[in-house]
Structure formats: C-alpha cells, structure tokens
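Entry: Glycosyltransferase
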Amino acid sequence: MEDNQEKPHAILMPCPLQGHIIPFVHLAINLASKGFTITFINTEFTHYRITKATTSANNQEYYDIFTEARTQFGFDIRYRIVSDGFPLVFDRAVNREQFLKGMLYIFSAHVDDLVGKLEQNTKPKITCLLADTFYVWPSMVAKKYNLVNISFWTEPALDFSLYYHWDLLKINGHFGYYDNREDTRKYIPGVEAIEPKDLPSYLQDTQTTTMNKMIYKGYENVKEADFIICNTIQELEPKPISALNEKQPFYSIGPIFLLNGFTNISIPTSLWSESDCTQWLQPKPHGSVLYVSFGSVAHCSKKDIIEIAHGLLLSKVSFIWVLRNDIVSSDDDDDILPVGFEDEIRDKGLIVPWCCQISVISNPTVGGFLTHCGWNSVLESIWYSVPMLCYPIFTDQITNRKLVVDDWKVGLNFCDKKEIRRDEVSEKINRLMSGKSATDLRNNIKQVKKTLQDAVSTIGSSERNFNKFIGDVKAKISEAAK
C-alpha cells in the first residue's frame, strides 16, 4: 500500500447547482476507490440546503455527506464548506444578477483563503485542484499553490467544444451581434455542422451578459488546465473529443455515475426534500407511466404549465409530475395549475415538489420522460431505457436535445420553441408512449444503452480513459514535486 504521504490528494469543487454536484460526488467516489484522498468542497448555502432537505441531517450543526462512503468502504473523503460571499438568507434566485457578479468577482477570494489553510494544515499534502469548468479562478489558485489543475466538464463534449471555440463564432459573425448570421456553422473543429437553433442558449445571446462573461472567462481559464475530464462517452461523441484532444489532454469518462459500479452508496445531494413515489407506482402496468420533470434550475411560464397540464389530461396517460415550488419564478400566484386539476387526475397522476429521479425512472412502470434535457437526465434515461420527450429550456439543454433527437434518435421534440398547445402536448405524449414511434425509440435507446454498458465495462473506453487520466495525473504530480 502507498505511504499516506504519497497518496494524491485532490480538492474537488462543483458549481453550486444540483446538476453539477451529483457528477462531482460520483467522481469523488471513483477517485477515492483508486487511492486518492479527496477534500470535497460545497458552498455554505448548498450545504445548508442539503442539510435541510435530508431528514437524518435535521438539527445537525455540521452534517458530513460522505460519512457512509468512509464507514462502509473506507474511502478517504473529507468534507468542507466555503462561503460564496453572500449570507444564507440572501435569495440567490431572485437576485440572480447580483449573485452571478459575486461568483465572477468575489468568490475566488473565499476559495483562495480556504485552499491556503488546507495547503498549510492538511496531510497528505494537497496535490490537485479539480474544479468545475464554469469557474473562472482555478488556474490562478492552482498556480499559487503549485497544484495540478484539472477541469471537470459535467456536460457533453459537443457543448464544451462550442464554448471552447466561442471566439470563432464571434469572428464569423455568428455570435455576440444584434444581427447574428443565421446560416449553418461549419468551422468548429470536430463539429461537422450545427444550426443556430441548436447552440447553447448563452451562445445565442445578442448582447453580453454577466453569465456570458463568466463563460468566456471560464473558457480562457480552462485553456490553462493540465487535464480536462468530461462526463461523456467516447463512442457517442468521437469527433469533438478527438478534435479537443489535439488542443489539450481531454478524457471522456462517462457516465460517471456508472463507472466502477459504486451506485449503491447513499450520499445526500438533493437540495429539496424528496417524495417517495414507489407505492404510487407499484400497481401501474409496465411502461405505462410518464415521468415529467424540468430539472432543478429551469423556469417555465404559468401559461406553459397550464397547457402542459391540460395536455396531460387529454393524453389519458398516467404520470408523475415534479413541480418545484419555484418553477414559475415570475408569477406571484402560488396556484399555477388549472382550477380543479388535482381533483381531475385522481389516481391517474401524482404531483410532487421533488423526488429521487433515478428511483422513478428505474421503475419498470415508467415508459417515458418529458424532460428539460439536462445532461444527467439524458444519461439516466438512456441507462434505464426510457425514451424522452424533449423540452429544452436554456443553457446546454438545447444542444443536448440535438444529440437525443437528431443524432441518437432516442427522443422526440416537444414543441420546437413554438407556443405550447394542449392538443399538441397530448399528441406528442401518446407518440412517445405507444405505437410505432414508441417502438422505434425503445429499439434505438437499447442500442445506445449498449454503448454505455460497453464504455463502463472493465475493458471499455471510459474505464480505460479514467485509468489513463489517473496515471497521467500521478506522473504530473511527481514531475511537479521535483
């Protein structure tokens, strides 16, 4: 066994969003299983929300989410929290612009302070900084403390490549102008062609926003990283991955939640209390239930929610619908559903504020997923062979839709950015759940799932890439120590 002083010790830090925290937790487990010491850092606000949402954590002053991973498997994972610069009572959703500016200009000082303290007082010595690609400060912190700089992109390689080459979009008049060119983009390395409507929402903007500034600065920053790892599958995105590897060491290691088989470790990551849907699902026929969820961040209009609700009723399909309390951010009206809707659905539908998504879509009664196309949701749907009805709202979800519907053919378009109409909602749901189109989707998704299975096998591409990444990191650590 390695001497404790020589173990690689990585700081892991996700963006404070549930869709980023989950893959970072899986990455921590996988690195720890390979002999790494891990210090996992959440923001104080994220930690507060996880603690509040977890029954076992209520009234605990300090709740360590990795307790089970340490006690059950002996993994050396430490847990720390850091201020994001705002008090807990500050509403980050309502004051989004102010919060983003804090993350852009102030947050790095809090991270620097914590890393400095860890660097002085922690054994084994910290050797790596493994941070979310969206952060703007990792290269500065890594250089200051002589750490190997690793960037983790939690989304597809296609999205990464588009952001990575945003300067080419700008030069060619396709981004950042009031009159962006509307023709096909054919010059991004590794991307044969992409239409303007399929770009991430932040690359469709016609003027610079604070979020744009964060992305630009983050991608200038990532070009200084020693290594980049990505939660994707080499066989599903070979061309962008190959092109990116010509620029920097880029490793596809997804789906990270399947790598090394540590899927049964219970680590709290939910920012909301989860409803248990198991009993409601139990008597339903195989493949008869539609799962509806628009993720942890995206917002909808009240009008769209009402049309979707009527469409669900018209479809006569059984459904579970996750409706976050803040799903309609611009409306003061708490009653966002049609009058009498919950009485009408009776035992046909279940509405919950949040749930454990994997426990629902892994249930054999679930036969379809009306989804916002978040990347975690896409990978989980493929793994559990649940075809998707794609309703991307913003950010990478728009480009993920292209992969799901156009490239892999494991999902259908929901509304193509048109006005949502209840009759069309009903028609699309029925196409997803039954008939020839449903059969074709299920056949296609089984083939794509096989690609995932092969990738995470002991001889698969993701397992090989992960082991190569670890070997390369250890070599870099040894080089830096000389």
